[in-house]
Amino acid sequence: MSAVMPVLPNSAARYELAPSQYRAAMDVLLPVAAHVGYHFSADDISSAAHAADIAATHELFSNTKELYHEALRYAHSRIWPTWSQEDSDELERMIPGDAIRRFSLATFERFREFPDAVRLIVAENMFQRATITTTVGILEDSPVVLVIDRLLMRGHDVGAFRTGVSAEDLFVLLTSLCAFPITQGPIFHALYGMDISDAQNTEGMGKMISDATVTFLSTTMATTQGSSYTHSSHSPSLGSSVAASLYSSQEYPSEDDFNLS
Known about the structure:
Layout: H1 11-14, H2 19-36, H3 42-52, H4 64-78, H5 85-93, H6 96-113, H7 115-127, H8 143-157, H9 167-178, H10 180-183, H11 185-192, H12 199-218, H13 242-245
Helix pairs in contact: 2-3, 2-4, 2-7, 4-7, 6-8, 6-12, 8-9
């Protein structure tokens, strides 16, 4: 997958910042937000402003709750692979199992590369500081769910994947496994002696994740849940299906969906 750094569409422009300035400020604030929520101190703001080479009085820092929401959006953009059109074309040419394997490994690498983003997302799910489920507009739809759905459809078309598994199902499986080193790694190491940060274990974890996703999709095990193991319920900001809501075109998301030129 492409190594292009993700930036939410229009985020930097909304605050009249260069993408590099926006990233610099957010990278400083992610670990802070995971610990304190939106209760940023003056020193936290000063550090972020210094990293971005902007004033601490800049509009980005004017409302700490909105700043926390921005950090959440940024964290979500960090954990998913980014790709160029060339990457998308290559996924189209690969057999479905290999495409899913590559996507799974790329996702695992993103979670490893940006642990502070994972920590913030986990913390928000635990403490619900932003009341995401009842507030419209805090998070933006991830085009990555659309990519998962398209990969599944290709696998269904050629008979490589079983039916009864949705993009949301695979989302649950992938995020759970990819987050393990952050959510349970240190205690698991203390209890069972397996250091997930060891290079050999990291490689093994990546292989286990890719094997698990491919096996989950290609097993002949019958499902009795209909079209999906999980079923979406209504929320103020989404319809009944995340993947379906993203089908606005027949193209893969491009770098422009994540980056500002």
